[in-house]
Specification:
- It is a single chain.
- This protein is of the alpha+beta class and 493 residues long.
- It has two domains: 248 residues, Aminohydrolase, N-terminal nucleophile (Ntn) domain (Glutamine Phosphoribosylpyrophosphate, subunit 1, domain 1, 4-Layer Sandwich), CATH 3.60.20.10; 176 residues, Rossmann fold, CATH 3.40.50.2020.
- Helix content is 30%, strand content 26%.
- The chain contains 17 helices and 28 strands.
- A seven-stranded antiparallel sheet has the order 4-3-5-2-11-10-12.
- It binds iron/sulfur cluster (SF4).
- The site of iron/sulfur cluster has 11 residues, from helix 8 and helix 17.
- The site of iron/sulfur cluster (SF4) has 11 residues, from helix 8 and helix 17.
Length: 493
């Protein structure tokens, strides 16, 4: 992945940029389970999909642009021999929509083959790339995944697998959940802050690593647990189990709260919390903090649905009796990749995507629930749509705090100039979107709904202070950025 605050011009909301998976099976080809799990992770990246397998002698790979269903055909799956493998779905940053950045990334070197799938974004990739280039490593992309691959390959020339991964982890700084295949051994690594999710599942005949537990469900497997922040998990090649190595420990984690708010599937369990229930709890908190009695409460589909159901439930418990209603119908054939090159066309896109149901809107006071406001374009359109349809009042409630800063950890959010809340306060935004009232959820309510302290969450995009040392940005904790030039590689072994 490339450095990450770039914004593709045709998206209206934040975009997750990757999903990763890895499997080791006893006596069954890995390709098909990998393919199914990538389907389950399609929401995490729609621009390219890839699988690399190993049959004990050599790697086989197929990486292609497009959705999983378009990237593979039956013959591709048949060709991917071997009982272990890793996979990836990806959404690249603007300007790198080409196959050289698609993953898994593969490299062959003196002591074997490596394949890597990465979810997240390093903030010191350039420093390591410069050092390795100076040592003669040739790079084929500007992505940070290739930097990790080269660094790991170099360490594997001098150290065993576990020490090599530990050395690489001591050098890379930023967000990473990785599935790696070294020859036929599949590993999972999660960065010491646990920024992006990664979990372990058990199948009848093997083990699986995946960004989200929904991928494990798809394979009829059982979620074993999350990979811990700073942990390396090595799957046994015969599918009989896995070994765990806690390679780095930190006092606090920095889980991305937006995974629970928006990116992850509601049916996934991440860091012990079912995403759907977290969203319902966020909706309940929203009622507690800024509930308003209206005739109906309705979600912006699909992401606002769980929030709205929690909000409506809490309002009914409080005796307000705000009725939950589906007032906006989604055209499910307009995908997330729908291309909208100009602002004017982006505005029109809302009508293509969503249509109001007149009987639930006309003559009513409405609370409209969404998970976030990025630029404000969609919210403005939705408020206008409901008012055009006869809504008497439209009150917006947002299940997250205002987004005031970009994300450098692998989420395609927007630049500061594009973020409406980076430049305007809540009253100004309410006026801009022409809502009758507008309230966001507080950061403390988010922490409460996630059952975490603020110190264990990444809140960079809502505070402007990050858990990593990023050039030109403030940090929210003591952060040690690794020294790259001249560091003694073996010192921490
Ligand atoms: S900055 Fe925001 S979107 Fe990015 S990792 Fe942190 S919480 Fe998640």
């Amino acid at each position: 992945m490339t450095h990450g605050s770039g914004q593709s011009p045709h998206r209206s909301g934040p975009t997750e940029k990757c999903g990763v998976v890895g499997v080791a099976l006893d006596d069954r080809a890995a390709a098909r389970p990998l393919y199914y799990s990538l389907y389950a992770l399609q929401h995490r990246g729609q621009e390219s999909a890839g699988i690399v397998t190993h049959d004990g002698f050599q790697q086989h790979d197929h990486v292609s642009m497009g959705l999983v269903g378009d990237a593979f055909d039956e013959a591709d799956i048949e060709r991917l021999n071997g009982e272990s493998g890793i996979g990836h779905v990806r959404y690249p940053t603007a300007g790198s929509l080409d196959k050289s950045c698609a993953q898994p990334f593969t490299v062959s070197f003196k002591s074997g083959s490596l394949a890597l799938s990465h979810n997240g974004n390093l903030v010191n990739a350039d420093e390591i790339r410069d050092e390795l280039a100076g040592l003669g490593h040739a790079f084929t992309s500007d992505g940070d995944t290739e930097v990790i691959a080269h660094d790991l390959a170099r360490n594997l020339l001098e150290a065993d697998l576990v020490r090599a991964v530990k050395r690489t982890m001591s050098r890379i700084h930023g967000s990473y959940s990785l599935t790696i295949m070294h020859d036929e051994t599949v590993l999972g690594v999660r960065d010491p802050e646990g920024n992006r999710p990664l979990c372990i599942g058990e199948l009848e005949d093997g083990y699986v690593l995946a960004s989200e537990s929904a991928a494990i469900d798809t394979l009829d497997g059982d979620l074993v647990r999350d990979v811990e922040p700073g942990e390396l998990v090595v799957l046994h090649e015969d599918g009989s189990g896995f070994d765990s190595y806690q390679l780095v420990e930190r006092e606090n984690t920095a889980h991305c709260f937006f995974e629970h708010v928006y990116f992850a599937r509601p049916d996934s369990v991440i860091d012990d919390e079912l995403v759907y229930e977290v969203r319902r709890e966020l909706g309940r908190q929203l009622w507690d903090e800024s509930g308003i009695e209206t005739d109906v409460v309705m979600p912006v589909p699909d992401s606002g649905r769980a929030f709205a159901s929690g909000y409506a439930e809490a309002s009914q418990e409080a005796g307000a009796g705000t009725e939950f209603a589906e007032g906006l119908m989604k055209n499910r054939y307009v995908g997330r990749t729908f291309i909208m090159p100009t602002q004017d066309e982006r505005e029109r896109a809302v009508r293509l995507k969503l249509n109001p149901i007149k009987s639930t809107v006309e003559g009513k006071t409405v609370t409209l629930i969404d998970d976030s406001i990025v630029r404000g374009t969609t919210s403005t359109q939705l408020v206008a749509l409901l008012k055009d349809c006869g809504a008497e009042e439209v009150h917006m409630r947002i299940g997250a705090p205002p987004i005031v800063a970009p994300c450098y950890m692998g989420i395609d959010m927007a630049t500061r100039e594009e973020l409406i809340a980076a430049n305007q306060d809540v009253d100004d935004i309410r006026d801009a979107i022409e809502a009758d009232s507008l309230s966001y959820l507080s950061i403390d309510a988010v922490a409460k709904a996630l059952s975490r302290s603020r110190a264990d969450l990444c809140l960079g995009c809502v505070t402007g202070e990050y858990p990593y040392d990023i050039d030109g940005e403030a940090t929210d904790r003591e952060v040690e950025r690794p020294v790259i030039e001249g560091a003694d590689l073996a010192a921490d072994d």
